[in-house]
Amino acid sequence: MSDDGLIAKTAVDLVGLLRKGEVSSHELLDALERRITAVDGAVGALPTLCFDRARKHADRLSARSVEDRGLLCGLPVPIKDLTKVAGVRTTEGSPIYADRAPERSDILVERLEAEGALVYAKSNTPEFGAGAQTFNEVFPPTRNPWDTRLSAAGSSGGAAAALASGTAWLAQGSDMGGSLRNPASFCGVVGLRPSPGRVATGPSDTPFQVLSAKGPMARNVRDCALFLDAMTGQHASDPLSLMKPEAPFLASLDQAPPPKRIAFSRDLGITPVAREVADLCQSAARALEGAGVAVEEAHPDLREAHEVFQTLRALDYATGLGPLLAEHRALIKPEVVWNIERGLALTAEEIAAAERKRGALYHRAATFFETTDLLLTPATIVPAFPLEQRYLAECEGQAFETYIDWLAIAYAITLTSCPAISIPCGFTRDGHLPVGLQLVGPPRGEATLLAGALLMERLLDLGPITPIEPNVTH
Fold first, then answer.
1. Is the overall model pTM greater than 0.85, yes or no?
2. CA–CA separation, 392 vs 131, rounded Å?
3. What is the CATH number of domain 3-460?
4. ∠ CA 427-433-437 to the nearest 5 degrees?
């Protein structure tokens, strides 16, 4: 099969071919290496490559029976540069760690490799994953394959751009305030933020934090479900990790009942949204009515989201990155310095108030999902913006106070602990840029969420819009 034929295949189809012996892992790695050489110079999605490591793993895997090669059976995957891979340069986008090669992988990487994933690259990320725009002082910025003058968003921008440009079939990412969902929206792919504990990670100095979650990215919903299946399972190093569900997410996709009632919100009542983006997402939601689903405009009360997220995120930065500030302040970008210092200045009263308000917010969201199967919103409030912008400063005439305010439609959902996914729902009139629709499921409701996303994917019938040849513009 030609390189182009392989690159265009879905992950589910390739795993099937690997199981039948109709394609080998080495053929897939060779095709990826040639594709990266051809297109990634214009995109900058995968700055660190480790093909020799992947080929050695492929050799070890091929010595096993097909039944013992795991869910991914030798499929290559890139790992986000925030996530440690043993013996591979892992920078977190920071000059502090520019030359670090950890001795041990994150337990998620260990699990994926046990399931037959071949790690061949690290995907680009902003420094410490902060800012939802993929630039740093270690590597060139990641560009959007739909228009290389534009941002791929972040912090899983390299992962999303690799999927869109055909240098990955699946890609691992992580999400605190939308870092799986925002780049999926900008790049026309799928990104799923799971429930806390669904994907075990670590070992970590902060194993009890629940704002950030690692999760799967893919070009379509089925591939995303497959990758989530390979990621799930309990691990002793992650005290919050959940048992693997009895029914695999991929297998249950076609068995789950369709949603009966969904809610749509243009803005969750908390943020401006570009009119064209909101209109596209509302039109997509209304497509469900033709499938017999009741659609109403509603959302849970999330009015405390800005205050609570700003406080708890700052606390997380102070806890995780505070020790670096005194020793490496000059090497840390100003936005991260601000976040750490804000966290260090918090009072116990402020932290306690934020925790109580988050609790109230969660309970209101859980009550909302007692009568609603899914909540739909825009995934990101604008289409891709120019690469030179560090962040979005205003929308629809409303200026933002901080560099993360523009992420509210995603981070408000983070605070609910509900799983959420971004899928492509259409394109802008000018520039033909993809727009993402965010679907939110009930607490720990990934199966319901994925089934709803697959139904929406079928109804919208956009086809396989990626991979694309990067649109290199100057």
1. yes
2. 10
3. 3.90.1300.10
4. 55
Q: How far is CA 315 from CA 18, 190, 347, in A?
A: 45, 29, 10
Greater pLDDT, 138 or 257:
138
From 123, 151, 179, 241, the catalytic residue: 179
Whether 155 is a known active-site residue: answer: yes
Please give the backbone phi and psi of residue 306, each rounded to the nearest 5 degrees, phi first: -60, -55
Q: Which of 443, 444, 262, 264 is nearest to 365 (CA)?
A: 443
Q: CB within 8 A of 24, min separation 6: which ones?
A: 18, 58, 62, 74
Please tell me the distance from the alpha carbon of residue 392 to that of residue 97, in angstroms, as a whole number: 27
Active site annotation includes 122 = no
Catalytically annotated residue among 25, 94, 105, 155: 155
- Please name the residues in contact with 172: beta carbons below 8 A apart, sequence gap of 6 or more: 77, 78, 79, 80, 83, 108, 112, 123, 159, 214, 215, 216, 217, 227, 231
Q: What is the pLDDT of residues 73-132, one digit of tens each?
A: 999 999 999 999 999 999 999 999 999 999 999 999 999 999 999 999 999 999 999 999
The C-alpha angle 91, 71, 4, rounded to 5 degrees, equals 70
Domain ranges of the chain: 3-460
| Per-residue pLDDT reduced to its tens digit, 119-171 | 999 999 999 999 999 999 999 999 999 999 999 999 999 999 999 999 999 99
Q: Is 174 a catalytic residue?
A: no
What count of other Cβ atoms lies within 10 Å of the Cβ of residue 437? 27
CA atoms within 13 A on the CB side of 49: 18
* Given 80, 214, 333, 357, the catalytic residue: 80
